[in-house]
Amino acid sequence: MLGNRSFVPISSKKSVCNLPPGPRPLPLIGNLNVVDLKKPFQSLTELSKIYGNVFTVHLGPRKVVVLAGYETIKDALSNHAEEFGERAEIPIFRKMTQGNGIAFSHGELWKTMRRFTLSTLRDFGMGKRTLEIRILEEVNSLIKYFESYHGKPFDTKMIINNAVSNVICSILFGERFEYDDPAFLTLLKLINQNTKLLGSPMVQLYNFYPSLGFLSGASKTVLQNISELNAFLQKLFQEHQEELNENDLTGFVDAFLVKQKQESKKPHTAFSNGNLMFSTLDLFAAGTETTSTTVRWGLLLMMKYPEIQRKIQEEMNHVIEPGELPRLEDRKKMPYTEAVIHEIQRFANIVPMGVSRSTPSDVNFRGYVIPKGTEIIPLLTSALNDELHWKTPDQFNPSHFLDANGNFIRREAFIPFSIAVLLAVAYFSTGYKNSAFKLPPGPTPLPIIGNLHLVDLRRQDKSLMKLAEKYGPIFTLHFGFQKVVVLTGYEVVREALVNYTEEFVDRPSIPIFDQIQNGNGLFFSIGELWRTTRRFTVSSMRNLGMGKQMIEGRIFEELHFLIDMIKSFKGEPFSLPSFNCAPINVTFVMLFGDRFDYKDPTFLTLLRLIDEVMILLGSPNLNYFNFYPFLGFLFKTHKIMLKKIDDVRAILRQYMKASREDINENSVRSYIDALIFKQQEEKNKKDSPFHDENLMASILDLVMAGTETIATTLQWSILLMMKYPEIQKKVQEEIGRTVKAGSWATYEDRKNMPYTNAVLHEVQRFITLLPHVPRCTAVDTHFRGYFLPKGIIVIPSLTSVLLDKTQWETPHQFNPNHFLDAEGNFVKKGAFLPFSTGRRNCIGESLAKMELFVFFVGLLQTFTFRPQPGVSEADLDLTVPQTTFTLRPQPQATCAVLRE
Ligand code: HEM
Question: Which spans are transmembrane here (predicted)?
């Protein structure tokens, strides 16, 4: 329609504003008669040859000033950055974003979003080695996909798009997607379609004449796609909101949600839902399209010029040792590769017209006056093809970036791009195969036993820390025939569980748990079943009041019963496990809908069974069964254990039956009710994960994980108060100052009780209750220079974090100052990870913290705890007698003396 023309110069009259010259505009269409909307950058380049490097063009009624040539663009965007610093108002983007996001927002909002985005992206690894490794892993998945074609032809478009956007996904959402994930494919398809449409002549026409918008089907499709993207992202945001843990942010979205919460009371915050949506989308679209298009150009050019490809491969073989992973800094030793990558970007020229700017005020530039609000197009293509700067601008010629000796030279007229492209292109050229896959180092395994002779099975945590001193923070151990990678120390464990949360998200198959749960439930399940069950459980627990005042009321109620029970001892000694009843009962309230009387036979049976199962779980015999399951016939422990679990199941079955008999929407009072209700809701759904076996397994997991843990922590906290009476006294003094006589401290009160809060944190740090819970890799993973194949068992040692001497002043001493500053204020510590961290962390954290605080403060408010007569504080034993699933204190007694 509007084809390329040969241009006749028309000397434009100087306007009052002294605008740059340009072709004379026709009524209504302006200069659209001389602009090919399919390749507008070419038409503008032609015009620059006639009107010079700064000229005016009228796109319909819109007046635009075009900047051409490297010198001009640099002068405007660097030396006059402020004057050209506004983003132009483009109708379709305005309609799409309503002024939200980063790419097309303005003024203060843009500044705030840009500042926040840059610092958040940096926090999540941009420009750092962690991100580099993340990219390499993605490349690894990509290579596998390429290999699956066995040299046969295939289209690279979608798959490269997937891989590249996965890198940005891991920064945004803290997770990558499988290449065949239908939701991911839809997301990419919508973005792809919009990118195409946004550059189409029809949408450009809409931008020139927005008032005719109703005519353009393309613009409508763009907006429709945006609303689909909106729906998709809202769902993701919702999931992130539900699982948000301020101490453990998975990516940009989480950081935004936290900021949004912090600013929720501000009347004009930039952290609105609209901004979340469009900032995410801007980053996603910008990070995907640009990079993947460049990578595809890279592939095409390497096919076209095989001799160049070969030269790159030779250079890489020289520089990168077999078995080593390449680092970005290797570029310095690879001038030829570096030159090729730069030339690919110059030649590909993927954003030929830059992104339009506008002038925030009248601007004097090169003798012209450009009025406020004029749209500015920096014609990047003209810099990348500037004849003054490139020897052969129209040819693919890596020597543009090489000197006579083959050294890489930086060229000013090159406008650089992103790290992702550099690495990815480099990798495609090497074929990646050169790097051997190596596991972390470790002791040599002996036949049959592997390294079991180096591990004390009763104190695995201590043995692992000792081995770390010799083999470094990441090492490989052989438990019998089983290979295990051990991660130790705060830095490494946090990096694995947070930055690589999706990679380390799975649990391994452990024979005893396989036999008990058969892959069902929460604790030892994986994949979609785990995800759905976990999401459902977290939201049900929240609906049942977890972490809220609702459950706090039940905790106070339980506190009364506990205090009454302790009073009944009348200051005489009683055993520490007597405290267990109360925290266990709170978990039972959530599971069963009501508390038990402490003498109820079912309650007592459950307590006994949980206790016995926990002891068996820690026994060396059970470990042996897990290492050598085929020798099961030799060991009895696992059979005894299975029998006990059956007994627990029999009790749970009764509760499930009762729930099933009168379930309806208005009677969801417990986790069991919630599960049964969900099961009925999904009864006609094929493949629903809410089948009987999974229901039972999920309840069983909460019975086991949600009782022993809190109960044992409470026991420890009382034991430590007996051991350190001066600390107990200081806690009581703080309680006296802050809690009104006759009332209980609420969880909220912890903010005014820094000392007590510090003591409770220190209890959890010091006791290292759960030394580790095994994970395994969900995908092939490159981590800190090692290759961990999919499915390998990984032990992130929480003990080594809680006792990390780089993080704690006196790791082996009970010292509440670890959580206090010089003024006595409470300070949060990153290395406080008793609940673990990342996507697979403990789901009971907020319930446990609330309970521990309310019980602990209530108890110390009412009683002073002392050793029994004849036992001194020094006699109290802080060692652990046996490893149960958790580290319990030695059986000891306490006397509770009623306070005035
Ligand atoms: C002081 C109390 C507690 C501590 C120290 C604790 C600690 C932990 C740890 C370290 C994990 C392993 C996470 C990982 O693999 O990264 C875990 C998992 C888990 N915890 Fe807790 N926990 C406590 C209380 C609770 C409570 C009260 C509940 C439930 C009401 C609970 C339910 C769970 C569940 C279901 C998992 C498995 C999560 C999954 O695999 O997705 N925990 N806990």
Answer: none
* Whole-number Å distance between alpha carbons of 14 and 408: 46
Q: What secondary structure letter does DSSP report for 506?
A: B
Q: What is the 3-state secondary structure (H, E, C) of 142-155?
A: HHHHHHCCCCCCCC
Six token digits for residue 883: 């490893």
In this structure, which residue's CA is closest to atom 37 in ligand 1?
A: 523
pLDDT reported for residue 128: 63
Q: Can you tell me the distance from the alpha carbon of 210 to that of 212, in angstroms, rounded to the nearest whole number? A: 5
Distance, C-alpha 390 to centroid of its chain: 43
Q: How far is it, in rounded angstroms, from Cα 419 to Cα 114?
A: 19
Are 9 and 51 in contact, with CB atoms under 8 Å apart? Answer: yes
Torsion of the alpha carbons at 190, 154, 316 and 485, rounded to the nearest 10: 70
Residue 385 CB–ligand 1 contact under 6 Å: no
Identify the structural domains of the chain with CATH numbers, from first to last: 15-88+351-431 (3.30.43.20), 92-304 (1.10.630.10), 499-898 (1.10.630.10)
Q: Is the pLDDT of residue 415 over 70?
A: no
| Count of beta carbons in the 10 Å neighbourhood of residue 387 | 11
pLDDT, position 9: 32
A 10 A CB-CB count for 618 gives 19
Tell me what ipTM this predicted complex has. Answer: 0.98
CA angle 229, 233, 238 (to 5 degrees): 150
Whether the CB-CB separation of 315 and 341 falls below 8 Å is answered with no
Nearest to 561 by CA among 894, 858, 861: 858
Q: Which two tokens stand for residue 474?
A: 């990441």
pLDDT bin (cut points 50, 70, 90) of residue 435 is: very low
The crossing angle, in degrees rounded to 10, of helices 581-592 and 671-681 is 20
Which mutation among 493, 590, 835, 836 tests ligand 1's pocket best, with the greatest number of atoms within 8 A of CB? Answer: 835
Ligand 1 lined by 699 (C-beta under 6 Å):
no
In this predicted structure, the answer to whether residue 121 has a pLDDT above a threshold of 80 is no
* Range of lowest pLDDT (425-434, 606-615, 717-726): 425-434
522 lines ligand 1 (CB under 6 A): yes
Share of the chain above pLDDT 90, in %: 45
Q: Half-sphere exposure of 559 toward its Cβ, with a 13 Å CA cutoff?
A: 25
Q: What would the two tokens of residue 735 be?
A: 């309680």
End-to-end CA distance of the chain: 94
Residue 838: C-alpha distances to residues 165, 176, 228, 245, 256 (Å): 21, 14, 29, 9, 17
Please give the torsion angle defined by the CA atoms of residues 884, 885, 886 and 891, in that order, rounded to the nearest 10 degrees. -20
3-state secondary structure of 840: coil
Q: Helix or strand or coil: residue 677?
A: helix
Judge whether 791 and 508 are in contact, CB under 8 Å.
yes
Among 246, 419, 245, 234, CA closest to 326 = 419
Calculate the alpha carbon distances from 395 to 185, 287, 339, 346, 391 in Å: 35, 27, 14, 10, 9
**Bigger pLDDT: 82 or 430?**
82
Ligand 1 lined by 641 (C-beta under 6 Å): no
- Return binding residues for heme: 842
Query: What does the block give as tokens for 294?
Result: 């460049």
Q: Which amino acid appears at position 894 of this protein?
A: T
* Centroid of ligand 1 to alpha carbon of 878 (angstroms): 23
Give distance in angstroms: CA of 534 to centre of ligand 1.
12
Contact predicate 48/68, CB 8 Å? yes
User: Nearest 10 degrees: CA dihedral of 85, 91, 93, 98?
Assistant: 90
Q: Tokens for 362?
A: 């009248």
Which residues are paired to 796 by β-bridges? 487
**Residue 127: CB partners within 8 Å, gap ≥ 6?**
419
Output the six-digit token pair for 794: 């990984």
Instruction: For ligand 1, say whether the CB of 754 is within 6 Å of any of its atoms.
Output: no
Q: Which of 17, 16, 34 is nearest to 25 (CA)?
A: 34
Mean pLDDT across the stretch 182-194? 82
